Hints:
Residues 31-59 form the DEAD-box RNA helicase Q domain. By secondary structure, the chain is α/β, with parallel strands linked by helices.
Amino acid sequence: MSDDQSWKAQLNLPKRDTRPQTDDVLNTKGNSFEDFYLKRELLMGIFEAGFEKPSPIQEESIPVAIAGRDILARAKNGTGKTAAFVIPALEKVKPKLNKIQALIMVPTRELALQTSQVVRTLGKHCGVSCMVTTGGTNLKDDIMRLNETVHILVGTPGRVLDLASRKLADLSECSLFIMDEADKMLSRDFKTIIEQILIFLPQSHQSLLFSATFPLTVKEFMVKHLHKPYEINLMEELTLKGITQYYAFVEERQKLHCLNTLFSKLQINQAIIFCNSTNRVELLAKKITDLGYSCYYSHARMRQQERNRVFHEFRQGKVRTLVCSDLLTRGIDIQAVNVVINFDFPKTAETYLHRIGRSGRFGHLGLAINLINWNDRFNLYKIEQELGTEIAAIPATIDKSLYVADDASAVPVPFPIQQQHQQSQQQVHQQQYMPPQQQQQAMPPQHGYPMQGIPQQGIPPQGIPPPQMQAHFAAQPQY
C-alpha cells in the first residue's frame, strides 16, 4: 500500500451517517477535501470527524479563503458554514508561531463553545491551540490561559474587546478575521464593538464574513473594511429543503393541550421549543415537566455556567426537549434535533428562518410546527411572502418519512463540548444548572426519554386536542 493510502487506512473513522440528504448539501461540483491540497494532519481530523466530501459552501469558500481573498458568503443555516471557515483557518495557522493568528467572532456564548469544539475536533492532529472566551466567565482564568500559547481565539465581541484593550490578548499577528452570523454581529448590539476590535488587528488582515442573511449594515461594513471581497451566494431559496413546515391554528389557552397531543403523536428524537419571552420559557418548561416529560430550558437571564450545563447535556442527548428563547437560534448545530416547535410564533422572517433551521441540519430531514393564534395570522402570511415558502395546515397524521431517520443509530453524536479551562468536567456536573429554589418548581432533571409508552392520540385537524384530553387538562391553569 502506498504512503498516500496508508495514512487513510489508519484513521479512526466514525460510523457513516446513512440518512438521506437534500441537495442543499449534495449539489456540489464533485470536489473532495484532498482536491484543496490541505495538509495531511488537517485531512486526518476532517475525515475522523465524519466529513466525507465538502458541501457547496465549503467547496466554494475553502480554496478562495486559502488563497487569501476576503470573502462575503451567504449560505443557509445547517449547510456546513462553520467548517467552511474553520478549515481555512487551520490550514493557514502556523503552529510554531506562538501568537494569535486567527480571530473568530460569534454572537452568543453557546455558539462560541460549539465553534471552538469544531476547531479542536478538525484540528486535533495539527498542533493548533484554540481558546474560547466569552462574557459571563472569570476574567482571571482567561488571563492565565492567554499566558500559554493560543493560535485561534473564538469569542463574543465584548470579552474580546476587553482583552485586547487591556493588552492581554495580542492581536498584532492576527492575519485572519472571521465573523460568523455576520448579520447579527453587525447589528446595533455589536457593530461599534467590532469596529473597535479591528483597530487591534494588522491593517492587512484577511476577513471572512458568513451569514444566512445580509442586511444593509453588512454591505456598509464590506465597503469600509473588505478589500475586493469574493462574494458567494448560495441562497436561491431561504428555507432548508429538508424541513417540512406546518401550522396549527389554536387559541392561546389551547396551546398546551395541542403541544401534549404533538408529544404523544410525533416520533421525536430531540425537539427545541421556542417562546418569545424568558418568563414564558420558564412557565412552559414547568408545564411540560408537570406532564411527565423530560425537559430543560435556557434563556439569557440564566447564569452562564447553568446555560453551559443545559446546552452540553442537551447536545449529549441526556434530555429530549429543550425550551428556549431566541438565545439558541444562532448556529446551534445538534444533529439529533428533528422537530422544532414555535410555541410562540416569531415576529420576523429572519427569526423564523433561524429557529426552524435548528432541525434539518446538513441536508437531513426535519419538521417545523408553528402554533398560531388569531393575532399571528398576518405575521404568518408576511413571513411566507418574505421567505417564498409555504406553511401548510397541519394534517391529521404526519408522514414519519418527512422527519424520522430509518436508522436511528445513524444519527451522529455531536462533538462533545469541552468545558472551559477554568472548569473541570467534574465541577460542571456538581453544579446545579438552576438555582435550587427554581429547580424544584421548574425542571426536575429527569434524564431519559419518558415519551415512550404514552398512549397514542390522534392529531385532529387544526391541532385542537380531542375531547378526552380536554378533561385531563381541565384542572390546569390557563397558559
